[in-house]
Amino acid sequence: MISKWATTKWGVDGIGMLFQTISDARLLIAVAEAPSFAQAGRRLGMPPATVTRRIAAMEDHSRVKLFERSTRAVRPTEAGLVLLDHARRLVAEADSAEMSMETLRDTPRGWIRISAPVMLGETLLGPIIGAFLSDHPECDVFLDLSNAPVDLVAEGFDVAVRVGPVGEGDLVARKLGTAGAALYRNARSKADPLAAISELEGLPCGLLRSAETRKNSLTIADPDGQLHHVSVKPRLIGINAQAMLDIALATDLVVVLPRMVAYPAVTRGTLRCELRDCTAQLSDVSLVFPSKRLMRPIVRQLVDHLAANLPPLLKKYEYPET
């Protein structure tokens, strides 16, 4: 609710003067919705020091404090909430105007914000995004690689590549393929290769999963697709596939790794696949975006580009050891 104080203090002209550019309004929204200046900066691709400096400039200009800061959180003051309401309306109007103008342009252009998991982004996305930028010189990309779930609408992302559940809400999902994981061991290991799934029982293993999931069971799909639940002895649990690979190469552990991450080491002969016809984990890979109807032309072209180029790579890594 907008107070009478806000209307008399600033008015429309005052609000316009506080926001020197529309990016100031976006910055205010990001800070209000994030738990810290640093998190807001990451969402906008901006150093935390820049966020702090620009918010301070707005506070100096308005001569009021916009945010209460503590070691735990940042929250808007009453004045900050008033300005936040104006900022959201300004950004909505600006985005609407930009979308209207861009629809009329022959050349797709503008910034695209993409979110993707670290492993898939580092392994597959680089050349695909690079080719898109080369074909679209008027387009710029902000690529955020993170294993943390993002709220596309709230955090301003145009499209996300997701491995596993796509989430709920008014999102459009487009399945591209699957990403699988398998069991691997250091090729120098003197242990005999596993001959059956049952040999995993009680075996020291490295598991690719979050720390919160500390179950001692491992689910393996055999070549016929039948699932087997095996009790193992987890000596390593992690979510960073590259780190898990490095540890596998330095130990004698049987480690669950994404096939696309393990492939180069298998090709070099430093890693071997155990039970190569079995799958330790299989997840859908999908493109997710807020809406087709309001999608900017350049975003639509990127979605089509990803949909054309990611599936062949995902297919390549389904069973690369065979």
Keywords for this entry:
322 residues; 11 helices; single chain; D-Maltodextrin-Binding Protein, domain 2; Arc Repressor Mutant, subunit A
Describe the protein's architecture and organization.
- The protein is of the alpha/beta class and 322 residues long.
- It has 3 domains: 4-102, Winged helix-like DNA-binding domain superfamily/Winged helix DNA-binding domain (Arc Repressor Mutant, subunit A), CATH 1.10.10; 110-177 and 285-316, D-Maltodextrin-Binding Protein, domain 2 (3-Layer(aba) Sandwich); 179-283, D-Maltodextrin-Binding Protein, domain 2.
- Helix content is 43%, strand content 25%.
- It contains 11 helices and 13 strands.
- It has helices at residues 4-9, 11-18, 22-33, 37-44, 48-62, 78-104, 118-135, 152-155, 241-250, 259-268, 297-316, and strands at residues 67-69, 74-76, 110-116, 139-145, 159-163, 172-186, 204-208, 217-221, 227-231, 233-238, 254-258, 271-274, 281-289.
- The strands form 3 sheets. Strands 3, 4, 5, 6, 7, 10, 11, 12 and 13 form a 9-stranded mixed β-sheet that branches. It has a two-stranded antiparallel ribbon with strand order 1-2. Strands 8-9 form a two-stranded antiparallel ribbon.
- β1 and β2 form a beta hairpin.
- α3 crosses α4, α4 (37-44) packs across α5 (48-62) and α7 packs across α11 (297-316).
- It is elongated.
- The N and C termini lie far apart (64 Å).
Summarize the structure.
This protein is an alpha/beta fold and 322 residues long.
